[in-house]
Amino acid sequence: MPAAGNYLRWITLCQALPQIGVYTSIGLGSTVLFLNFCGAQKQFGPYKYILNSFTILGMIFAIVDVIVYPNVHNYNAGFIVFTFVKPFGISDLNELEILLASYTFFYAATIALLSTQFLYRYWGVFAVYKLRYFKRFYWLFWSVFCSYFGLQYALGTLFCFKMDTTFMEYFREEMQYRYDWNISELPALILLAYDPSNGMVRWRNVSGIANSFYIVTTLYGIMMFCGWSMYQRMEEKIQNFSEELKKHQKQFFKALCLQITAPTMVLFTPVFVIILLPFFDLPVSIPSGPFLGLFTLYPAMDSLIGMYVVSQYRQTARKLYQDFRKALESFKRARTTVHYAVPKLSEPYYYGTCIDLLDRFPFEKTAKIILQPQLLTLNYLKTHMADKDYVLEHYHLDIKDLPRFEITPLDANGLRLKNVSFMITGLLIMFIHYFVILYCGLRMNHNICDALNKMSQGQQKI
């Protein structure tokens, strides 16, 4: 017989997989969002919002997994979902059980949004007029759609899989033997298909399984229907499309084929095995936690599939790389020339070259307005040690230990052109912004009466 606590090594694996998943999901997801932001999604239409939303939701799902670290153990006619960690210092068992249930919310919401992707691509080929349901205020419906399945899964899990005395007695020895833990002190959600005393079906737990099975099969069914229909009829429907649109549709279909294969292996099959195994009442003792650890790998896999299949991502990445190299070479030339020719004026030239580098990227104008002052600050406000004695005397701190920026226009050596340049440029930026506000306000005050006379009553009120 294995030694007591022999499944504790699986806990290490259950915590390692989510950590790998969260780093890869955030890394690849951030790359997808960056490429989308830089122009890869220009030809995607409303589909870009689904892609961005799914990427962000996948990263959140991976983060929640790392916070909760859920584990599963199947034993004969039951299973238990539990955690050994106490996130945010929470020690109350009921609150920890709510956190476990919140994990299922993000799981269900993620696969609901994935099914929405399939539905969009299906309508994009066979019912283009229905794509209007992904525009404007219709987006609220899809938010409610994903939230509905997430809440139904989470609430069903919380209320139907509540720990009770019968289950505690059934699992007490098993949990003590396998994990060296008292089940009474463990936050957990449970399923016991049959009452061990009389063999009767425990309908409360079965209704929870029915709820989970309904949600998973419904969403998976949408994906299978859309995917199979596109496989059977897509070639015929896109004959009249332009070559560029045909290429996009085929790429997205290829991506969807991979996207339905990956969740089948990573998201759906493990769930079916875990929730259906207790109904066979087999004499098994399985640490099923690593199956849940695979869930967090899916967002990273989805991002990788999208970047691999859809050519716009590769084209955008290639263009960004080429632009970055050109801008970097320009920056180096400007830095070398100015540094040796006019040392005192080098920093303003560095700043101008950084702005040129920023302009080479297809960011939105708003983002450029936000980033330019940050570049200004990073270029001009290099740390200075002029106030180290003052800081030490009044705050009893060594200035070297403080993260800081300093504005010191004058020191013992005279005028510090770097800081003066920052002050002048910063004041100029604020003056321009204030002038725009003041000008618009004065013009509105001067012309508003004439303009209002040309408007309707409702517009005048606004």
Automatic annotation (TrEMBL):
Keyword Transmembrane helix: yes
Coiled-coil blocks: none
InterPro entries: 7TM_GPCR_serpentine_rcpt_Str
Organism (species): Caenorhabditis briggsae
Keywords on record: Membrane, Transmembrane, Transmembrane helix
Segments traversing the membrane: 20-37, 49-69, 100-120, 140-161, 209-231, 252-279, 291-310, 420-439
Lineage: Eukaryota, Metazoa, Ecdysozoa, Nematoda, Chromadorea
Record keyword Zinc-finger present: no
Annotated protein name in UniProt: Seven TM Receptor
SUPFAM superfamilies referenced in this protein's UniProt entry, alphabetically: Family A G protein-coupled receptor-like
